[in-house]
Amino acid sequence: MTGSPPRGVRLQLFRGDAPHEPYRVSHDLHESNLFERKALARVAAQFSTDEVPSGSGSAPEASPCEVIAGIADTPGWAVLRDSCWDGPHERCSRDLFAQIEAGTRAADPGLHDPQMSAIVTSTEAVTPLHLDIDDSFLLQVQGWKTIVFVPDHVVPDGYLRAVLMGTGGRLALPDEVRPLSRKFVIGPGEGVHVPFGWPHFTRVDIGPSVSVSCAFQTRRTAAIRSTVP
User: Fold this and answer.
1) pTM metric for this prediction
2) Cα dihedral sign for 148, 151, 154, 160?
3) What separation in angstroms does the CA of 93 have from each of 34, 88, 134?
4) 3 state SS of 192
């Protein structure tokens, strides 16, 4: 795999005094060809369907490579996980997390278990309301995506434990909490901090969409996980 390596994420943080809440970041991954759909399709072609989860409503037998290559015309999705990367992508991941660690260590030290994923989705694709058990930055490379965060009181008792055990399902979104939601619209070169345990959902407004998720643990998130009964 060849490609011009990006200079690295520019963690221009707009977090103010709330480092553990959602906030905007800027980056320059969109200036590299590493995360163009053609490049990601070539990476996906090297792996099995089990290794690169994907789906296409109108072409259920399509391989992950075919889903990515045809996603401008056929609704679908694919996720290239951290284990897919080598060469320039692996170097990009190391550079990203080095800069993330430098930009977050004062408020949230002890970054570990970094995981970079590329998420390819078609226009109008929706990720239902859920929460993540790590901290992450969602960086938009192609297309436009809306991410909506809602108050954590929508999370029922025991749900975080279920997620940690791999059995957490979708969350319900009561109408009364919609006015309290916080919405971010991100395009190429923009991103958002997705805090540990913060309920959210996403929608692709203009696609196809390519997003890069940089997920990680810190001493704080590891401590929270360890105390979940």
Assistant:
1) 0.90
2) positive
3) 11, 9, 17
4) strand
Is residue 117 predicted with pLDDT exceeding 80?
yes
Query: Among 6, 4, 21, 26, which residue's Cα sits nearest to residue 197?
Result: 21
Mark out the alpha helices in the chain (DSSP H runs): 37-44, 64-69, 87-104, 159-164, 219-227
- CB count within 10 Å of CB 128 equals 11
Pairwise CA distance, residues 189 & 31, whole Å: 8
pLDDT, one tens digit per residue, over 159-191 is: 767 766 666 677 777 777 777 889 999 999 999
Task: For the chain, give every domain's residue range.
Answer: 24-227
User: CA 115 → CA 71, 136, 170, 208, distances in Å?
Assistant: 24, 9, 23, 23
Q: Which CATH fold would you assign to the domain 24-227?
A: Jelly Rolls (2.60.120)
Nearest residue to 10 (alpha-carbon basis) of 19, 184, 24: 24
According to the model, what pLDDT value does residue 142 have? Answer: 97
